[in-house]
Amino acid sequence: MSSEVGLGTKPSAHAAGDGSANDPSGSNNNNNNNAAADARYTFDPVKLDALRKESPWKEDPKYFEGVAVSPSAVMKMMTHCHSGVEKGTKKGGNPIEVMGLLLGRPDPSTPKTLIVTDVFPLPIEGFETRVIADDGDVINHMIALGESLENTRQEKFMGWYHSHPFDVGIHSHCFLSQTDISTQLQWQRAEDPHGNPFLAIVVDPLRSLAKNTPELKAFRAYPPEYTNPIQNQCPDGSIIPVEQERLEKWGSCWSAYYELEVEYFMSGGARNVLALLTQNFLWMRTLGSTSICETEARGRYPDRIEKAAERIGKFEVASGGGGMDVPFVGTVGGISRGRMTASAPKGGGGGSGGGVLSVRESSGQNKADDEDGGELGKACQAVVEIATEKIVGNIAQIAKMELFSS
Hints:
Layout: H1 27-38, H2 45-54, E1 66-69, H3 71-90, E2 97-106, E3 113-126, H4 136-150, E4 156-163, H5 178-191, E5 199-203, H6 205-211, E6 216-221, H7 243-250, E7 257-264, H8 268-288, H9 295-313, E8 324-332, E9 335-343, E10 356-361, H10 365-369, H11 375-404
Parallel strand pairs: 1-3, 1-7, 4-5
Antiparallel strand pairs: 2-3, 2-4, 5-6, 6-7, 8-9, 9-10
Helix pairs in contact: 9-11
């Protein structure tokens, strides 16, 4: 965790002060940084009301560019989403999707940024979040919660979050499904015209556990009548010409929404405390722990191995010298994309001559087959990802042993 930002992210431009070049001690720079960071926690009601009345987002489907999230909101979201994983797996089933509401506002100082200051879990569990539209208990809970917050908080409910606790794969599962798009459009139609732009955040809890860092993304939906002038543009702004790749990364509704950049902010006092803790204590945690040895990682590791083995087990390897043709994406001997062929040793079974590993560049039909990597290629990439984590963890353990053992 960085002493400057926390949560492993870069500081927002809004939270970065210019400081003073004539201040060798850096005290003015720190004061400016703290004051800028604290500004996220306060706002001018008059300017905010003016921004809500103007509602420039009604004229521009891609008006918002970023989201600033407080650390407490991130922690509450991650804790809630992880509780759904634990609850589902303890029952011997699949992890459970959970959902909650975001509290915050648009920022008058940086109008194209939405501020999320807090989150509130909702009593919803399952595999689809459609229940929000027709569950009376949930609606009553939201009304009661909103009424209680009116007396204590100045912000409004300005978004919703939910989890996608799917198996850890090559791509993140932070995307909007068709059900999510329907829910988000209902919210935007109800709230956007009244000066309250609505936001959707998707959390991938299993990938967060595997990577040891929050895996979440923020989105807004396009109006149904909107047509993106840039062909094959994905929610993150990238251009992916292959349809299958777009579907795998962003879902079937990839053209119906766009992604907002997520940043984290904290108060000046919290930054100072974090800097002190980082300087004095955090180095001990870095040296004294390894991510692959943590309880959550150990608990998920056998499941990930089993899933990868099941995927590879679906493919039959030809015997009698036929070999196995595995698509790969990378660079081997100057070939950027091709196929790797492993053939059996000549003369059959248990000889000592060994097999032959050859690489050939894709062309013709093979190149068409390799556009999406192939199912076997994807399974192999998942294995490589697991193996890489294990190797890096083992190297870290060996390095610590060599450095600190007597």
